[in-house]
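Sequence only, no structure available. Ideas?
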Amino acid sequence: MRKRKIFFSVLIVLLTILVTACTQQKSSSKNTDSKVETKQNQKTSKVKNINKKAILSNLKSSNKKSLTYYALGDSLSVGLFSNTEQTRFTSLFAEDLRNGTGKKVIEDNNSSVGKTVTNFGLPNVQNVIVADPDIVTIEFGTNDSAYGVDAKNLGDFITNLDSLVSQVKSQTNAKILLMTTWSPSDGKYVSNDAIYDREIKRIGAKYGVPVVDLSTIWKNNPSVTKNDLGYSQIYNIQKDNFHPNQLGHEKIAKLLYETVKNQEMK
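Reply:
I predicted one. Tokens follow.
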């Protein structure tokens, strides 16, 4: 009887030791798995960060020695009322891209005074695709908003801008920048502009396209639209206090460049 008690006591001790050892092994295994998983997540995060280059960095690291910048828009992109064509925002932005990438940048400006995305932007989409640009600015809404915010006009704008962005994105490798409307700080169509801007931003979010918000320049800042009201020999038209002056163009170019410098690819 005594021998049996001793036997069972030894057996219980051995089982206790065995259970403790198994528990420690499982705990050690979990910790090891956790460490491996953490390292894998860190590696994945690093790879993602490497792949998420800013637009400017992506342009700079491409194999191309020469880049094409395509500007599609209305009178703002034409250059009204910069001091010279060379100092309009599109040309200043092209120069910034040259300096930032160290590459030759060709500016292909296809813009027209008084136009909208419906009567000019979308009809020119094939010209954009054929040009096969590396970067595109799409600047519409200012004239569109003047037609009103009724279902027909706003609806046409939304449909046609969406189609324009969709086609450029799917049929080219271009980096696209959408631009919001322009107005003097006390402009007649400021309330309309806000509605159109909201739709521009929505379409930008839909396609993963950065939106350059021009209202951050002109809101409460009459200095960027103050012109001398003389006749522009450069653009063969009477100046006004609606379009950006030289300061306005410089600020637009700067905002565009800051966007490509800081905005990650999507």
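Residues 2-51 form the longest helix (50 residues).
Hope that gets you unstuck.
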